Amino acid sequence: LKEENATLRSKINKLQIFSETQADKMRKLERKLEENKIKEEKEAQDLEAMVQHVEQNLQLMTKRAVKAENNATKLKQENALLQIQLKNYKTENEALRSGQAASLAVVKQNAEVALQNLLTVITNSRSSIKQLVSGAESLQLVADLLKSIDRISEMSEDGQ
């Protein structure tokens, strides 16, 4: 009976040691689980903050795009107006060449006004959207043409 008691006590001790070991493992796993929960919560908060940041950036980019589109529309309208004005000046120049309109001084004055208007538009266009750069270059060519017309007019005036 004593021997059996000793065996049972030995088994009880082993079971208690095993139970303590299992309890330690369980506490470690519970701590690890809690750490993982905290880590996941932080990651979720970080992701939420990132999503909010991206949404803010998208809103800002949308506002910029709308502003750029409005500016582009305004510059296109201004460009169309100047094209009409240029066409009128060309018509007037043709009329002057054929002797049907006013004097050469009026042509020079109109050419100078057109040149000033075109140079102003070119300056504004260059500070605007990249899409309108090609339009600004075209306006520069027109301005150069008007300068050439002015020089031709001066040469014609000198020759008369």
From TrEMBL:
InterPro entries: ENTR1 (IPR026757). GO terms for cellular component: centrosome; ciliary basal body; early endosome; midbody; recycling endosome. Residues 19-92 form a coiled coil. It comes from the Eukaryota. The keyword Lyase does not apply. Keywords: Coiled coil. The keyword Amino-acid biosynthesis does not apply. One of its GO terms (biological process) is regulation of cytokinesis. Belongs to the ENTR1 family. PANTHER family: ENDOSOME-ASSOCIATED TRAFFICKING REGULATOR 1, ENDOSOME-ASSOCIATED-TRAFFICKING REGULATOR 1. This is Endosome-associated-trafficking regulator 1. It comes from Sula dactylatra. The gene is Sdccag3_1.
